Amino acid sequence: MCVVCGCAAPTATAAGAAPGQARLHGTAHGPGHPHGHADVAVDARTGDLHYGVGSARVSVPGMSPARAIRLEADVLGENNRLAAINRAHFRDHAITAYNLVSSPGSGKTTLLCATIEALRRRAPGHAVAVIEGDQQTSHDADRIRATGAPAIQVNTGKGCHLDAQMVADAFGRLPLHGPAHAGPAHAGAHDPAADHHHHHEATGGLLFIENVGNLVCPAMWDLGERAKVAILSVTEGEDKPLKYPDLFAAARLMVINKIDLLPHLDFDLPQCIAHARRVNPGIEVLLVSAKSGAGMDAWLDWLLDDPSASASAAPMPAAGTERQLRQRIADLEARLAALSAPG
């Protein structure tokens, strides 16, 4: 449900109606028009509507702000707990996990296939596995498996993002989880809701989590990854970091993909990077073409040679997901208490 995912989370400018906006209820209603809109800010100059300026920061027909706040706090809190277990589990297995997030069609899967082939040449002994997220089909996992790398497809149905439970279930079925206890039977026993204390012989490797194609909902969901990587293709436009700031604020790295197409497009590369750093001053940027191979060496360097990418290290600062979620949950609980207060 989007009411409890990243798209419901406030951005830095969503604390209320901005200057020039009024929180109004429209009056031009026809007969029988239902009255029950949540808070909405109306731009006095253009008439543009900005929903989610109330206490819950989201507008859901038929749902009170108090109920929306309680639901979001409960779900984010539980996912955060499961993600922490995933992170510890990855550490025990010496796995470095990256959460790749982008819109559909940005080239995530093509980049992953090229990365797997390049890693095989650069570091032939380095284990790699992939968790693929989509609403339906196993097309992307089939493409990954065709490279020889193991992959598990996670179909979310109507869901718009992966969550920590899904990642735990998929990881338990991958060879990276360890040959001593791999396979569906053991995987089913790996419930992240239970503490995971039994000893593992560290296997090591890279785990790529290709999230559902979506620039909004995955932003607030911690999967236990080392860092989020935002992938933006030059065919999408340089304004995406400003239009979808939560993702770029949560990402450690922005990969600008399909740069081989730059001569054919009106894409302002410096402006795109400036937009991303306006949202997240510390974000790193790589320029890559999975088709031509441009930038692939730098991408592999980032994956393999960054000393801060050790699986046993703390989460990368820009990812800061656990701290952000704890603060978000505290804010939600405070708003809920205020809404529930008498008078």
Q: What can you see in these coordinates?
A:
Helix 3 links the parallel strand 5 (128-134) and strand 6. The chain has a seven-stranded parallel β-sheet, with helices on both faces. Strands 1-2-3 form a three-stranded antiparallel β-sheet, with no helix packed on it. The model is unreliable at 3-17, 180-189, 307-314 and 316-322 (pLDDT under 50). The chain has 343 residues and is of the alpha/beta class. It is built from ten helices and ten strands. The chain has one domain (76-322): Rossmann fold (3-Layer(aba) Sandwich), CATH 3.40.50. The two termini are 31 Å apart.
Question: How is this fold's topology laid out?
Answer:
Layout lengths: L20 E3 L16 E4 L5 E3 L13 H28 L2 E7 L6 H15 L5 E7 L4 H8 L4 E5 L8 H8 L12 H6 L15 E6 L16 E7 L6 H4 L1 H6 E7 L11 H11 L4 E4 L8 H10 L15 H20 L3
Parallel strand pairs: 4-7, 4-8, 5-6, 5-7, 8-9, 9-10
Antiparallel strand pairs: 1-2, 2-3
Helix pairs in contact: 1-4, 1-10, 2-9
Portion in helices = 25-40%
- Listing every helix as H and every strand as E from the N terminus to the C terminus, the arrangement reads EEEHEHEHEHHEEHHEHEHH
Strand tally is 10
Could you tell me the CATH topology label. Rossmann fold
Task: Please report the number of helical segments.
Answer: 10
The CATH architecture can be named as: 3-Layer(aba) Sandwich
Arithmetic mean pLDDT: 80
What is the percentage of strand-forming residues?
Answer: 15-25%
CATH class, named Alpha Beta
Low-pLDDT stretches are: 3-17, 180-189, 307-314, 316-322
Compute the gyration radius: what is it? 21 Å
